Amino acid sequence: MDKPQSVILTGSIPRALLHLAVPIILANILQTGYQLTDAFWVGRLGASAVAAISVSFPVTFLVIALGSGLAMAGATLSSQYMGAGRQDMVNHVAAQTMLMVVVTSVLLGALGYVLAPYLLSLLGVAPEVYTNALGFMRVSFVGVIFVFTYAMFQALMRGVGQTRVPLIIVAATVLLNFVLDPLFIFGWGPIPGFGVMGAAFATLITQALAAVAGIVIFLRGRHGIQLTWRGFMPDPTYLRRAFFLGIPGSLELSTRALGLMIMSFLVASFGTLTIAAYGVGSNILQIVTVPVMGLSMAVSTLVGQNIGAGQVERAAKAASLGAVVGFLLLSLMGAIAWLLAPTLIAFFIPDDADVIREGAHFLRIMCLAWGGIGVQLCIVSAFRASGNMLMAMVIAMVSQWMIQFPLAYVLAKHTTLGADGLWWSFPITNVVVALVSVCWFARGSWKTKRLTEDDHQIAKIADHAMVEEGAR
After folding, report:
1. In 234-250, which positions are buried (b, 16+ CB within 10 angstroms) versus exposed (e)?
2. Residue 381 in contact with residue 296, Cβ under 8 Å?
3. How far is it, in rounded angstroms, from Cα 331 to Cα 328?
């Protein structure tokens, strides 16, 4: 057993969590560099250019969310098979999942490209924004295949406990994107400037290079997964199983994406000041949750591999430790945010005293229960890693559609709180969902599911994989 596997399955759980989490967190931080780089250079083109990217993002995010369930299914299956010592099935899962991702991304990308004008019309985009938004969106949809492929590479590598290679690739592509952005946006020498579309072209090129690098690494087989071209032959039994395992994950992320869009409409009804405060506060929330997102991904790998190895109680301890660390880390960051709220808001919008005041007010209410987000993220990751995708989906739907949005609407529209009702829906939702997650986790029903059990369906997949290995 190699070193990463011995740490994950038999070593100290805190050490294993740290070993996995640090590279993932660093990669996640670097990944935000794509958005920050685009925002930095596109901001030099003016407000309508920035608006074009802002309008396009929720739509492309929704499309990506639809395909992300496949990444969840692949990562869960690969981690459990790795824990069970089934390298043949790890390779089989990786090849078949990559096949599904390519087919799905081509279909979704083509559909998005064709429907882009209608989606922008539906959103009521202003005429001065429409052309740039359409160009940016269409180039983004062309690049969906590369985004999906590299996301799948990252998910599978995390599943087998290899987190450093994706970090190196992300670091290289983010640096390249910082160079290509101004080159394609403004032009230089014989290269014409493409404006907003240039940012999309730069991202497409860097994501394509990352996807190709991931495929090459898999084909060489030096980092826990060995792919062969023969392995991409469709296996209907596995594809059907992975598809139905991934559906709840896709619905979960799509629900979150739609919830964000609906919440934006509600916030917009209170005017420009409230929209600005919400926008800045949401950006800060995305930044502070990056470390805990990485922590939750590390929890997912630990739980998945230990369940695959039959070490259910060790998996439960890893999830519990992750939830405690996530709670403490985000609670500490919440305390810092409460103290520095005006300064943090002013960093994003330095010259508007009203936005700084309202944004700081929103931040100080929202950050009161950030610890609950840490708990929820880690427990939901444990549910996914155990194969209980439905539990994660239910928590997301309850959080968005049964608690936060109804609560925000009632408090904001039917009480004297006004816009404060929007702000208070955040900490209340975080506390309630964290408590629900902990209670569901404590029941232990998630421990009974093990995807590597030798049932008839798995046996058929294993037989197919062994036949392939023999044929080689």
Report:
1. ebebbbebbeebbbbbb
2. yes
3. 5
Q: Return the domain boundaries, the chain.
A: 1-234, 252-460
Measured distance CA(325)–CA(26) in Å, rounded: 17
3-state secondary structure 241-277: HHHHHHHHHHHHHHHHHHHHHHHHHHHHCCCHHHHHH
Q: What is the pLDDT of residues 320-335, one digit of tens each?
A: 999 999 999 999 999 9
Alpha-carbon gap, residue 184 to 197, rounded angstroms: 8
Determine the Cα–Cα distance for residues 2 and 162; give it in Å rounded to an integer.
11
SS3 191: strand
Tell which residue, 180, 167, 178, has the closest CA to residue 217.
167
Conformational region of residue 188, where left means phi above 0, alpha means psi within -120 to 50, and beta covers everything else: beta
DSSP letter at 188 equals B
Residues 6+ apart with CB under 8 A from 429: 399, 403, 404, 407
The CA-based angle 41-341-29, given to 5 degrees, is 45
For the chain, the residue count is 472
Q: Which of 438, 419, 429, 293 is nearest to 359 (CA)?
A: 419
pLDDT in tens, 169-214: 999 998 998 889 889 888 887 787 888 888 889 989 999 999 999 9
Contacts of 430 (CB under 8 A, 6+ apart): 369, 370, 371, 372, 373, 376
User: pTM of the full predicted structure?
Assistant: 0.80
Query: Two tokens at 242?
Result: 């992975």
Distance CA 162, CA 3 (A): 11
pLDDT per residue over 63-99, tens digit each? Answer: 777 777 777 788 888 888 888 888 888 888 888 888 8
Give the mean model confidence (pLDDT) for residues 239-266. Answer: 78
Question: How many CA atoms are closer than 13 Å to the CA of 60, on its beta-carbon side?
Answer: 23
Closest CA to 21 of 289, 292, 288: 292
Using a 10 angstrom Cβ sphere, with 0-12 exposed, 13-18 middle and 19 or more buried, the burial of residue 209 is: middle
> Is the pLDDT reported for residue 395 higher than 50?
yes
Helix (H, G, I), strand (E, B) or coil at 350: coil
Q: What's the CA gap between 53 and 293, in Å, rounded?
A: 24
Dist CA 423 CA 411 (whole Å): 9
* Residue 189 and residue 109 in contact, taking contact as beta carbons nearer than 8 Å: no
The answer to whether 329 and 261 have CB atoms below 8 angstroms apart is no
- Which residues neighbour 456 within 8 Å (Cβ) at sequence distance 6 or greater? none
pLDDT confidence band for 449 (50 / 70 / 90)? low
